[in-house]
């Protein structure tokens, strides 16, 4: 699994956990719909740190809270 795929998985889990729509996340995080779609559909092969910070803030979390998930510590995570 790539880092981008891990970010998409984490977003999906948090959306469900917080009862939030992707559209609402886009609004509160300031990420454009097209950019979010690329992340969620796997078309974006690289996700920048600033984008991850914006997503974390959209969930009202710190970056560390967002990254504190087993998906990011998996042995199968491909770091490019």
Q: In total, how many beta strands? A: 0
Oligomeric state of shown chains: single chain
Largest sheet report: none
Shape: globular
Strand residue percentage:
under 5%
Briefly note the structural class of the backbone: mainly alpha
Give the CATH H-level superfamily: lambda repressor-like DNA-binding domains
Tally the helices: what do you get?
5
Report helical residue fraction.
Answer: 55-70%
CATH structural class:
Mainly Alpha
Task: Note the run of SSEs as H and E.
Answer: HHHHH
Q: First CA to last CA: what distance?
A: 11 Å
| CATH architecture descriptor name | Orthogonal Bundle
Based on CA atoms alone, the radius of gyration comes out at: 12 Å
From the 3D structure, determine the CATH topology. Answer: 434 Repressor (Amino-terminal Domain)
* Low-confidence region ranges: none
Tell me the domain tally: 1
What does this protein look like?
Helix 2 packs across helix 4. The termini are close together. This protein has a single domain (3-68), classed as 434 Repressor (Amino-terminal Domain) (Orthogonal Bundle). The protein contains 5 helices and no strands. The mean pLDDT is 93. With 80 residues, the protein is mainly α.
Keywords, separated by commas or semicolons:
80 residues, single chain, mainly alpha
Give a short summary of the structure.
Helices cover about 60% and strands about 0% of the residues. It has five helices and no strands. Helix 2 packs across helix 4.
Give the topology, please.
Blueprint: H1 3-18, H2 22-29, H3 33-41, H4 49-58, H5 63-67
